């Protein structure tokens, strides 16, 4: 199974790549996690935010593998506990060959991306920096895998 984290924004600080790669590298080959960055729409003083978000959504959707189970990350989505995420991961591993996690840009995720996703997941009711979201997702996917695998990383 391949989990593809598709996120708006490029050129993140080195700590973001290091954190993401640390956890993604811990996963076994049958549960790979990869990051795909799409270009953020340029914003100016007169930029239409709605149009910018739409353009970013178009780029995100273009990076989704055909037939992938698509999950939009949005603060208005459903929060999952670690055990719930582990159950989702176990299901994905059984039923899906590709999973795509969509992370919007600085203004969030376009409603069209949320509506077309099969699930909407909220990491937190807090607003998290997009850089940090990449690391948090990688760690949480790894943590969920350890729950499924019976590895002692996660402690209840």
Question: Can you offer a commentary on this structure?
Answer:
It is a single chain. The chain has a single domain (2-149), classed as SPOUT methyltransferase, trefoil knot domain (Alpha/beta knot, 3-Layer(aba) Sandwich), CATH 3.40.1280. The protein starts with a strand and ends in a 7-residue tail after the last helix. The protein has a 5-stranded parallel β-sheet with strand order 2-1-4-3-5. The longest helix is centred in the last third of the chain and has 20 residues, at 130-149. Helices cover 42% and strands 22% of the residues. The chain is α/β, with parallel strands linked by helices and 156 residues long. It is globular. It is built from 5 helices and 5 strands. Helix 1 links the parallel strand 1 and strand 2 (32-38).
CATH classification, class level: Alpha Beta
CATH architecture: 3-Layer(aba) Sandwich
Largest sheet: 5 strands, parallel
Q: How far is the first residue's CA from the last residue's CA?
A: 26 Å
* Oligomer category: single chain
- Identify the CATH homologous superfamily: SPOUT methyltransferase, trefoil knot domain
Return the average pLDDT rounded to an integer.
Answer: 94
Query: Strand order of the main beta sheet, please?
Result: 2-1-4-3-5
Number of domains: 1
Large-scale geometry: globular
Number of helices: 5
Proportion of residues in helical segments? 40-55%
Instruction: State the total count of DSSP E strands.
Output: 5
* N-to-C series of helices and strands: EHEHEHEHEH
Beta fraction? 15-25%
């Amino acid at each position: 199974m391949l989990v593809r984290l598709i996120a708006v924004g490029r050129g993140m600080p080195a700590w973001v790549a290091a954190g993401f790669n640390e956890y993604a590298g811990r996963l076994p080959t049958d549960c790979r996690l990869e990051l795909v960055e799409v270009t953020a729409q340029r914003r100016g003083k007169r930029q239409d935010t709605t149009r910018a978000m739409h353009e970013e959504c178009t780029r995100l959707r273009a990076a989704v593998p055909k037939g992938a189970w698509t999950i939009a990350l949005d603060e208005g989505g459903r929060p999952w506990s670690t055990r719930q995420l582990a159950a989702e991961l176990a299901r994905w591993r059984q039923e899906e060959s590709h999973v795509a996690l969509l992370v919007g840009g600085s203004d969030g995720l376009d409603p069209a991306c949320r509506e077309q996703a099969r699930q909407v997941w909220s990491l937190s009711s807090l607003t998290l920096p997009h850089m940090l979201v990449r690391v948090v997702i990688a760690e949480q996917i790894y943590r969920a895998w350890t729950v499924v695998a019976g590895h002692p990383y996660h402690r209840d």
